[in-house]
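Researcher: Predict the fold of EAL domain-containing protein.
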Amino acid sequence: METRQGDRNRPGDETLKSEASVPISAWVVNRSPNSAEMVGSLLRNAGLRVRTRHVPDLSALNQALATDRPDLLLCPESNGPVAMPDVIVRAQACTPPIPVIVGGERPDSTRMAAAIRQGAAFLMDFQAGDLLAAVAQREIALTGIAVSRLSASEQLRQWQRQYEQFVAHTSDPIATITEGVLTQVNTAFSGLLGYDQPSDIEGTPVMDIIAPASRNTFKRCLRDAQAGMLPDQALSVTGQHRAGRTVPMSWHVGWAPSGVSGALQILIPAPSTDSASEQALAPRAESDLPVPERAQLEQDLMRLKAQLADAETRNAQLQAEHLASLPPRIAQIKTALGALAEFPAPAADNRFLLTIYLDELPDLLPDAGYAGCETALQNYALALQALLPTGSVLVQLRDFWLTGAFTATTLDEAQKQAGQWQAQLAQHVVEIGTQSRVLRAFFGVREWPDHASVSLEAAVMETERSTLDARSARQILGVVKRRNSGTDTAQADSAWANRLRAALAHERLHLVYQPISSLTASATEYYEVRLRLLDEAGQEQAPALFWPAAERTGVAEELDHWVFSHALAVLTDQRRTSNQAGFFVKLSAASILSERSLDWFMTHLPKGDAAAPMYLQIAEGNIESHLKTVLSLAQRLRQEGYGLAIDHFGSSPHALQLASHLSPKFIKLAPILLQEIAENQEAQNHIRQIVEYAERHGISVIAGHVESAHTLAMLWQLGVHYLQGHYVQEPEVVLHSPDQRTRPPRRQGERA
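Model: Structure tokens for EAL domain-containing protein follow.
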């Protein structure tokens, strides 16, 4: 489905998307640490990525706000060490204000009204996870509008500074073009396009700095110049900033007076003269400096000011809608949950839960408002209700979601029915404002809970999580299948933890190294380091059998340390013998969450001349969940001369934004992108887009899980830099130089 061009080019859109990809930081005031973690669990169960922090008193709140900023403050309405008004006042004093949600079991109506007037959102009970999540999402959306205003203001100031710098460096031509390549570039001009030094852009094809919309215009200008027809008017073009945005500029083009054959110069427009083109060709005197045309700049400033005013208006509208809709929304959610709970059990068939997420509505919220998005969701709900079996229930529990109950004979049949409904509504058109849109929807299905092991509310949350997992994996349907009881899982995890610690104690672990083959003649031979476990009988166990239990029990952190220290010893030995090897070592979520563990890694990385090409590899999903921690780690690695690698890259809709935040050295494509690469043009285009972004930012792209010659050929055509997989090379127990490698036979059932 095509996206309207005008929808996503306003200042602040990038900020809102970036905020959506970052786990929410929620501080819980007054409550106990356990209660704070319980609130975080409720929000996570309701589908939000959230990190909670306990703030016990006013001193701790003041100290925390001095060094950090949460996305959300949650405060009980009842009296405690921190008075509710003190929390709200301090939150409102921040720029932009921090949203505050006030909760309580027996609310005082006077204090409730005061909280709402001061800007807080009052919530009846923190135990209502779905409602708490809905209010939290709405409050953060309002804050996003405020952030967009600040972003636009900062962009306005940045453009002013850049143009002032540009004017101060205009005594020389801003660029020289020789045979279509930039050979000499003015310092201010390179800075205007986002480059630190002129050398960063010199040697680049001139068309790379021209935005696509202006390339045909500039090509005609170059052809005219070659034919001796230089323009006598300033040429309006749009430059391509290194960060992806565009920069409007106005140029003259003339032959270089240096005598270099075929060299053209770009000059900014001089004041009006009888023959602008002759002036462009003449040497510039110090007293006759060219100055930029300011009309375009003034237009840009006026446009940004208008957008700031528009953001202010939209913020006021969203605030009013929010305060008006909150009380009836609470009643609606209670009624909807009651309707689901009363869905009768059929005589023959079984009951199933259905969740639907309309994932484009959050992006449409700034334009359409809550009322417009709600109208679109209800339109979709009416169309879906007409397809459901007679007697089915369909309700709305929170923003952008529908929840239903229906009957089917088996889970497989229920899954098949849900897929058919999704396909039938794939082209359903809804009206949003003055626009007609086709909304993309993702479905989830679950067997009806038995209430003995899981409540209805928890089952709905679990089904919603499966829907979001399907969305991340680019699938249309998520299914929650029957699993072992929590007791069985805990017992199995405990058994694995004991076996793994015994393996650590008795050295029944070893490493294998899978080569990562370069398509660009790299001097370094890269390998991904992988862990193998030998059981008590000496049989090798696949990581898929023990790694989930290792992460749930905390043993993964110990295994990460073991892999890192042993891999570093091997790498150091390899480099001592002049083998230019480089290693990729994975970090688990347990290590990312442990400050002590991250300090351990940084302490053990060799420094200075002893530094080795060791890249810490983190999965995209773990980065999304713990972005702030990974950002800090990436900065520490860069300071020591090391780089970061992002694994399973591209499955998230915010993947490129994550890369822009982290500036990794390598990104490894998610396996899901390679599964249909031969037949799926969309998958090919997505990989091509990732490669183009990576090349613009000096990042190397690795394609793992290459299992056929056809896939290898496709990836080579798409410009991928490195390949990895069983087809390329099996993992090696002992490192060999490239000319010594042979492909060992794959053992039955063996996987890397």
